[in-house]
Amino acid sequence: MSEPMKIKLDRTLCDGFGICARHAPEYFSLDDWDYASLIGDGTVPEGDRDAVTRALLDCPVHAIVELHAKKNRPVAPATETAES
Ligand code: SF4
What we know:
Elements: E1 5-9, H1 19-23, E2 28-30, E3 36-38, E4 43-44, H2 49-58, E5 64-67
Antiparallel strand pairs: 1-4, 1-5, 2-3
The chain binds iron/sulfur cluster.
């Protein structure tokens, strides 16, 4: 069974493109200048995962990150070791 998705928005990175709120308006609200705020605590139920993932992937400045559900840390890309 998969863990619930958890996201975080770094408002210092947000550049006001407003894309996230178009994809997932239940999770992102925009101020008068289209800068985003996260609605709620960032927990995303399975049914909303696709829309929120689209918002995350389409954010031009990568201001939205998925946190590891257990540790609440950003999910780092897998690093490979060249040795075998
Ligand atoms: S898509 Fe990214 S840059 Fe645009 S409003 Fe949302 S968080 Fe900010």
